[in-house]
Design brief:
Quinone Oxidoreductase, Chain A, domain 1, Rossmann fold, 2 domains
Length: 349
């Protein structure tokens, strides 16, 4: 039996550049295919930080107040009226994408490339798609993934970003027995290290400019860590597979230089739009495969299973947790990548 819900609930709302608020928002009635989820934890993503700090994430420009957040887990408190989705009391993770096929061609088996795809907490389109950094969220039942009882909600808060990392590693193909290099050891990079470890990479080298991310990378499976300015050591890695997760042209340059001849470079870090200075000549003469990686598809189900059985170890990636009432402080900590990994908001009262 579903609970009686209040008329309003606390949420994290970006109003514009530099204007982030934790405020009460009205709880609207769900659509027939939407369940009401009581959010337990939410992870602060780089895109959330961009909306706060810049009023935009890439070319997605904030035009009106928007609830942030797409890395969320919680418990169903009211099942969808049409009977779809998990029942009341079910712990769930959330797949935040809504594919929207259009006139532009894309592979049918890769809905993440759907040109009209929307994402929770995204200003890519107007009206914006509100996120779920809120006490209660109306979510399409198809987004919900039931969590095993053995998987704690706090750990499950990493399901979404771990799925991004899983998809990136999957783009490289079979990595068992290979040397892997990860450029940028923030949360996505660290999770890529964990996924590579589980997938059987023989040697994993992680790179970052700061000590804290490297400490986390080593804790989740990196065999060696290097500072980002040690160009000679990075080039000497001679990696079969490189995961570029820094999202900078400096990182991409390191990725290309650190890849072996005939190797693969997976670009999961989103570089700024516009021309970028890249060592394409080196990529050509080494016959490197440069592979884009964007969000994820059904990998979320594999991630949930791997977290539940313990084969994917990610605990060190979470470095801080704040109650929702201290949400602004949480964002300040999350912006300091030199001192924090994944920062979680705890929505539970």
């Amino acid at each position: 039996m579903s609970i009686t819900l209040p008329a309003t609930g606390l949420a994290v709302v970006a109003h514009g550049k530099g204007d982030l608020r934790v405020e009460e928002i009205p709880l609207t009635a769900p659509a027939p295919n939407e369940s009401i989820v009581e959010i337990a934890y939410g992870g602060i993503c780089g895109s959330d930080l961009h909306y706060w700090l810049h009023g935009a994430a890439g070319e997605s420009i904030l035009k009106e107040p928007m609830v942030l957040g797409h890395e969320i887990v919680g418990v169903v408190v009211r099942q969808a009226a049409d009977g779809s989705g998990p029942g009341v009391g079910t712990a769930v993770a959330v797949h935040p994408a809504t594919p929207a096929p259009g006139d532009v061609r894309y592979p049918e088996d890769r809905p993440n490339l759907s040109p009209g795809c929307t994402y929770l907490g995204s200003a890519a389109r107007h009206p914006h798609t509100d996120g779920a950094f809120s006490r209660y969220a109306n979510l399409p039942s198809r987004m919900l993934r039931q969590l095993p009882e053995s998987l704690e909600l706090r750990t499950a808060a990493l399901v979404e970003p771990a799925s991004v990392a899983w998809h990136a590693v999957g783009r490289a193909g079979d990595v068992k027995g290979k040397t892997a290099l990860v450029i940028g050891s923030g949360p996505i990079g660290a999770l890529a290290v964990a996924v590579l470890k589980r997938a059987g990479a023989a040697r994993i080298v992680a790179v970052d400019m700061h000590d804290k991310p490297l400490e986390i990378a080593r804790a989740v499976g990196a065999d060696q860590v290097l500072k980002g300015d040690d160009a000679e050591a990075i080039a000497a890695v001679d990696a079969d597979v490189v995961i570029e997760s820094s999202g900078s042209h400096f990182g991409l340059a390191s990725a290309i230089k650190g890849a072996t001849r005939g190797g693969k470079v997976v670009m999961v870090g989103l570089l700024p739009s516009g021309p970028q200075p890249v060592f394409i000549s080196l990529a050509i003469t080494r016959e490197l495969e440069l592979l884009g990686s964007f969000r994820f598809n059904d990998e979320i189900d594999d991630v949930i299973a791997a977290l539940a059985d313990g084969s994917l170890f990610v605990d060190p990636v979470v470095t801080h947790e704040f109650n929702l009432s201290h949400g602004l402080e949480a964002f300040e900590v999350a912006r300091n990548s030199a001192e924090s990994g994944k920062v979680l908001l705890n929505f539970q009262q």
